[in-house]
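Trying the structure run again after the queue cleared.
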Amino acid sequence: MTKYLFVLTSSPKDFFCEQTLVAIASLRVHNPGAFVTVLTDDKTAATLTGNRAALKDAVDELKVLELDEKLTPMLRSRYLKTVMRNVVDGDFLYMDSDIAIVGDLSIPEEWKGGIYAVLDFHTNLSKAINRKKVLNNAKMMGFSPILNDEIFNGGVMYAPDTPEARKFFEKWHELWLYCVSKNFPYDMASLAETNYTFGYITKKMPGEWNCQLAYGKEFLPKGKVLHFFGSRIINTCGRKVPASMDVFLPKILRKNFYTDLKEIPVTVNADKSIHINEYYDDVIAHAKEAFLYQTKHAGVFGADIIRSYAFAKVLGFGYKKMPILIKLLELIGKII
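Done. Tokens:
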């Protein structure tokens, strides 16, 4: 049996708990009967009360680690991610929470026993827009210059419960702690160096298993996991969002979609399916259609622009500082 694993570090002040609940709800829609595990820390677990307690009902296994209370939320999150293989038993498919699961995640038989992930930006490092940054980070840490020209996105990873995989994650955690000691708390450089240390054993998943929306347009139609990244979630600053903005800002990318969920009762049925209300259930069940809608109405090139980091920053700035820009987009949305 494959477990579907999420890592959660959260407090009532953020919306990571609600985001994880939405991700699990989307998993349940397309993969009924999936065994879901959440790995969390003791500080987060203590906050899973009231409406937040729905998360505990939604999972099949809640694993809680006691961590140094002085660790920041980001450090606790990376700590859990780099040790997850050695504290969760069984094969698992790990997924970040800033995703929507939109397809069947049955693990192919040929993956069994291997470590799998999707290339970052869906391309080789030599063609990646962040190539210089990645290589500079590796050099700064004294790591390999990534000789195989591949760097993997850690947002979706398949890890079997094998001695080799456990050693791989043990090394990843060790190298991540080294990075932390150098005031570089991010986990991708240490993941790349771990892969180098183990002879580049990480194998490539098809792109649809981690469709990074800003770069994975070719994988979207057959996408299984849509990775939109937390940086794409836009604070609409309490402004009413008309239907004409759906092409620019799908509902699942609106911050209030998660923050409003804090006050909405969630029902977890006997079969672990999740019911929130008609609006939420519909958005979660049709997440892929919302992004295909962008392509249909804005065209392939237009959708590429809309899904870019730059456009997300402009949209966030518009809602915060330039409402006239948002009015213009609302008008354009009506036309296209």
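The mean pLDDT is 96. Worth checking whether this holds up in the mutant runs.
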